[in-house]
TrEMBL record:
Protein name: UDP-galactopyranose mutase
Needed co-factor(s): FAD
Keywords per UniProt: FAD, Flavoprotein, Isomerase
Pfam families per UniProt: GLF (PF03275), NAD_binding_8 (PF13450)
An example Gene Ontology molecular-function term: flavin adenine dinucleotide binding
Record flagged with keyword Secreted: no
GO CC terms, sorted: cytosol
Family: Belongs to the UDP-galactopyranose/dTDP-fucopyranose mutase family.
Amino acid sequence: MKTVDILIVGAGITGITAASILAREKNKTVLIVEKRHHIGGNCYDCFNEDGILIHLYGPHIFHTQHKDVWDYLSQFTDWLDYVHHVKAFVDGKYISFPININTFEQLFEKSFTKDDVLAYLEREKIDLPEIKNAEDMVISRMGNTIYNKFFKNYTRKQWGVDAKDLAPEITERIPIRFDRDDRFFTDPYQGMPEKGYTELFKAMLDHEKIQVITGKDYRDIKDQVNFDKIIYTGPVDAFFDYKYGYLPYRGINFSFKTYDQENRLPMAVVNCPNDHSYTRITEFKHMTFQKHPKTTLCYEYPSDVQAGRNNPVPSYPILNNSSIKKYKKYLNLSHKKKDTIFIGRLGKFQYLNMDICVKHVMDRLIFD
Ligand code: FAD
Ligand code: UDP
């Protein structure tokens, strides 16, 4: 029988940050149990058979406005100075995205000033008494032309349902800018871990008070471990044996292709709203600055996650009225489990960026 202070379920960025803080700052012994055969959860990266660093679960760019988060992680890694840019492939052209003055110029092939953009939006945007869904969120800010060219089909592919059937927060993430700033993220701290995410995580876990088991479901070992508390970063509905039914997730099938040429795309990510059945393509070398005669691209094909199973891995919580209502029932149950903290994107059924996962752990930790 093993004895530890805390059992952590899941070795994604949430579980790993919790382990690191508990061991280093709270002097606790920790066992992390991860059912995949690797650490890092969805942020895992590795070298493929051609020796190119890829992100196995889609492109991950670190960005944050929280200095404490940046400083915490910076103890374990240096950063590559990468600033993320995305283009949308629309009307046969690579167009600046998110929407900014350059987008209008490239789309309509004439010059625009800030005032021209404001006048365009004033004419096109739809006045709505209430923003009820992800379509309303776009058309009320940008109008139907922009919605149809950049958002409508991408959202349908990504989520498998119409934007009308999704919560407004889904498209609220995408800003509109009245200048020419076409960085995808405007956070003051952004970059890529110098040696990759997996190396960063290994450094965080490198502590005598932390033990890690991979390739095991925590249910298979929890009776062989004495512990005081659990930090649970798996799906909250699974913890309660799907008592109120499955929470819906969208998955992505990631298809990787290596080309015998140094570079293939003009930038790291190209969104394809209207062509192809994939949503976007990533060329990792633009983010990792790796020098290599070949290059690997990743194509993302969204698909349904089979309820309660991990094939493909659940990527995005599908937020709509019924799923939010169901989640609230699980939340009530989780409040009654005094010896367990539910945290992370699956534990909280939220779309969380990496930095917010770290921030939640830093702010909640934990069991003083
Ligand atoms: P996870 O990474 O899912 O980790 C939870 C772990 O728990 C998993 O490894 C799972 O196997 C394990 N687990 C579950 N159940 C059990 C069990 N019963 N027993 C043992 N282990 C279990 N964020 C950004 O900040 N920037 C980006 O550019 C970005 N890009 C993204 C791109 C895509 C395609 C997606 C889907 C997300 C992206 N994100 C990005 C979000 C980022 O992936 C999440 O913030 C992060 O992965 C969440 O970490 P987590 O530890 O909470 O969850
Ligand atoms: N979106 C879109 N077209 C795009 C990019 C995004 O319609 O070219 C919508 C889509 O609904 C998507 C949401 O905006 O799910 C959030 O986009 P983001 O790029 O933040 O998604 P993520 O990187 O999390 O997949």
